[in-house]
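The protein record minuted underneath.
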Amino acid sequence: MSLKAYREKRNFRRTPEPAGGAGERKGQPIFVVQEHHASRLHYDFRLEANGALKSWAVPKEPPNDPSQKRLAVHVEDHPLEYATFQGTIPEGQYGAGRVKIWDHGTFDNLMAKKTEPLSVTESIEAGHVEVALHGKKLKGNFALVRMKGQRQSGKDNWLLIKMKDRPATAKRTRARKPKAARRKKADPPNGARSSAPASPKTALARPRNLKSARPPAQFTDFTHTDKLMYPGDGITKADVLEFYERISQFLLPYLHDRPATLERLPDGLGGRGAPHFWQKDTPSYYPDWIPRVELPSAFGKRVHYVLVNDTPTLLYLVNQGTLTFHVWLSRIGNIDRPDFVLFDLDPGRASFADAVAVARHLHLTLKADGHNSCVKTSGKTGLHVLVPWKYEGGYDDARAWALEFAQQVADELPDQATTEIRKAKRGLRVYIDVMQNARGHHAVPPYVIRAVPGAPVSTPLSWRELKPQLDPAQFNVKTIFRRLSRRHRDTMRQGLGLEA
């Protein structure tokens, strides 16, 4: 943002605020936090960059505790002269109210010290800023993280986080080949780093593991356990932690060695303004024992995905506000080849009974061609049909293969099923979505909670129990363990050929 937006909102003949124009200054960059008694008290957090103050409005006092996060709404740039502004903006003017300096000082841009250095402006564009603040009240490392899909009055919502003060980068080392790569010698491990020379193009496509320390025997450093994560259902953070600890023996085989995207709701389903964002890149302040894998994004930027391979890692991430885990369909031992193919049946405006009919028809169609398939609830309104991928091809081949079957079912059930991507043209038909069968895309595994009222759990089903009258909401945090106590084996895991 330039100062144009700032100036258009103000009448400098009436407001004492500076019009600006000093341009860039030399020396250590500065920050300022201003306490702003406008229609509502808030704190304006500002960082110097490119001759202006990059600015966020923070509704609550900035945190000095790593366990606390603050909503920060990205607003227009302010002039450098604003860093010393204190006074009263008169009634009738934009931001009317008293302004005083709450804290100020200099800062270091921690993103400039990364393997791929970024300026403050570039970090803002990327949606992740890390700075070391040298103020009177705010000292140490802080992060600003943009929340995906969250906007307020047309402005981006971010989180302001006090980081644990530790080195900003993790040491990279060569990782041992994953078990899957050692077991299948015929398949070259695309995931592990090799000592053999590789072309730059090949090296870019391969993931790199980051060294992690041995995890603790258990993770027990839980915070704010009495917080209501599902207010309408009386489910607290302690309940969510207990669920994931008990379900871990069933869930971890579906997470192991798969790059994970975390769906985080630090304050739970707290209403429209509650933070809700997706995290792919693992913050540097997470403990060293949290395993990561480094992969290039579609734009070539390196992303440090977390690997949820053990219960301590699982519970640490839940304690950070993760409700749902989304993982790749492939593992780091062979990252370009999925283990299974996903058919995501989305009812949209159709009924769940229609989704059941489409799923059963797809099951019979696959079976007639010699393919076993498994089914589970999505945890929301739909169904997932999964088929082991036993061919040599990668994601593109798997998606093309799946689309053929999806189209066949749509042709045979024209009133109930469709492969039409555009929602407006689906009508009352179930959408058979195979687009998630792509590198870098992710899906919900079995046994995770979904971030919707009722705390439903994505649950494997037998084909016999998949009936039109089935209610997927019956599988939830409060009921799932009664179901599992009656079952001695996970037929879906066996059907997909996944390790325990």
